[in-house]
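pasting for ref. prot 1 ->
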Amino acid sequence: MRAILSLIFALFATAALAGLKPGDAAPDFSIQAAQGGKDFTFSLKEALKKGPVVLYFYPKSFTSVCTEEAHEFAEAMDQFAALNTRVIGVSGDKIETQREFSTKECRDKFPVGADADFKVIKAYDAAFNLPIAGSVFASRISYVISPEGKIISAVSDSGATKHIESALEAVKKWKASAK
């Protein structure tokens, strides 16, 4: 079943283009999240006090591309930390799933948020309806948000790698222009 869902997500996960554009205000939010298997409340407002935030949306924990993306973000966390940048992934999964995903696939390196009611996903125009499954999921969209709460970068791509590369590039470019 997971293989079928992965194929479906690969085909439809970018059906919606990123709705927010660079320069737009990023909607503020707090969300139940997990990192290293432990629950906490992630607050965008609080995270932005420490530097830029990469907010990435993904369709479903433990599917192939979502797992690959989590692995790649985990591998890049030292680079993001060197840029004083926080990362959070968000999907429509429940906190119980995110608790496990944060440990197994995010390798305890960054948090994942549980947005089962799709409030954050919809606020960022990252929801898509999958008629075959009869459900709503998060599109694969990533945003880089400046400490001032503005969108720096928005990427919609069905693959995993472009999100990490684009986010790192956007943060580096923003830091260079902020000097």
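and prot 2 ->
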Amino acid sequence: MLHQKLIIKNMSCHCCIRLIKKLLEENDVIVDEIVMGEAKIAYDPDKIDLSRITEIIEKEGFEFIRDKDEQLVEQIKNAVIDLVHYSTFNAMVRNSDYLVEKFNLSYQYISTLFSKQQNITLEKFIIIQKIEKVKELIHYGEITLSEIAYMMGYSSVQYLSTQFKNVTGISVSEFKKDPARYRNVTSEIPDGSFEIPDSHETGNEY
């Protein structure tokens, strides 16, 4: 059996994990572990080779990443998405500290590489993902905006509302009128043409 770690682009949600696992297992590939953006597999080269595995996955719109820097950036993106959308978000933990610990690299290195590889800064990517999570929480309507602000690490409801408007172009009250229209959780890099306020206003943003 051959063992391989695959870095996979375009995994935007946990449904993608289930789909890729199903596709691989249907084709005699053992999935040892699979998380957002990454799969550890084992396969018998007499039954299937890596080019065929690649073909199966890419046919569904995913992509294998082989360049080391691109692999790291994809892992950073998925780590942010996983932290913000799928983990128990701890507002007391700075996103920068989380990434430094996870990848054992300086935040300056991580941030510089991310900006070099993508069309947006890491800080703005984090903000956009947090706003998408805020949209989800508002849509569910189970907790107040004050509770959402605290949960997501904003220093005040006013600051959250201001950043929401900067990122989305609409106010929180406008969003509440038609939430489904404005949801867009994704690992693809969105438009980053908004301003980040001075760092003293951001609370535990980074």
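Residues 185-189, 198-204 have pLDDT under 50 and may be disordered.
Residues 68-86 form the longest helix (19 residues).
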